[in-house]
User: Which sequence fits this backbone?
């Protein structure tokens, strides 16, 4: 039996995924979470085989959650659920540690196939995601966020939600001075001068949902 949890701040999405998954004899949804923080606690306590994780959530993002699960070497395989429009799909998401990548518009058949595929430790890329990556490879243009380290991306996600350096430091177990260094470094790599510009760049490249995030100064 493939034990699965669903982590998404939209109840309708969680309900829809649960209805599809619970109909299968070999898959069971053991828990749901509306935030990444709650989802991480459930992953640690329930040790599910699969976690379906939304990219855009208030508080900790799905990317941060995925990277923390990977760093802690927990025995849960992550399937990231994202929205791919015209923006370049950042290779950084692939590097976060997830094995599966689905779009919100996937079919029930694709969702089930991805869960079973990833449960056996195999990577699954939705066709739309694979197409974005192929196009980026062909024309040599990726996302500017590909140049950031995992920690720099994590700091960037927190900065655009208006978190002060001291709070970011507390959550990442870093000194405010070190966080400031990460901030300066990522700003230089992205060639931007302020957090508003960072938020705009993240929105363009599909890393920030402006409806769920409050941009700080």
Assistant:
């Amino acid at each position: 039996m493939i034990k699965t949890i669903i982590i998404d701040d939209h109840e309708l999405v969680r309900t829809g995924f649960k209805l599809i998954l619970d109909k299968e004899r070999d898959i069971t949804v053991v828990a749901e979470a509306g935030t990444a923080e709650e989802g991480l606690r459930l992953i640690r306590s329930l040790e599910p085989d699969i976690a379906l994780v939304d990219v855009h959530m208030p508080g900790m993002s799905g990317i941060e959650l995925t990277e923390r699960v990977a760093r802690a070497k927990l025995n849960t395989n992550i399937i990231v659920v994202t929205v791919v429009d015209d923006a370049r799909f950042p290779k950084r998401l692939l590097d976060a540690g997830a094995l599966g990548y689905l779009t919100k518009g996937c079919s029930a058949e694709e969702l089930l196939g991805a869960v079973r595929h990833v449960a056996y430790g195999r990577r699954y890329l939705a066709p739309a995601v694979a197409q974005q990556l192929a196009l980026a490879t062909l024309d040599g243009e990726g996302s500017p966020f590909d140049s950031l380290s995992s920690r720099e991306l994590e700091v960037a996600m927190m900065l655009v939600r208006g978190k002060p350096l001291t709070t970011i430091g507390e959550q990442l177990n870093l000194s405010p001075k070190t966080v400031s260094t990460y901030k300066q470094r990522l700003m230089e790599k992205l060639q931007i001068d302020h957090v508003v510009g960072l938020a705009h760049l993240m929105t363009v490249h599909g890393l920030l949902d402006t409806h769920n995030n409050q941009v700080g100064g």
Summary: The chain is about 50% helix and 15% strand. Residues 176-190 form the longest helix (15 residues). The radius of gyration is 17 Å. Confidence is low (pLDDT under 50) at residues 212-217.
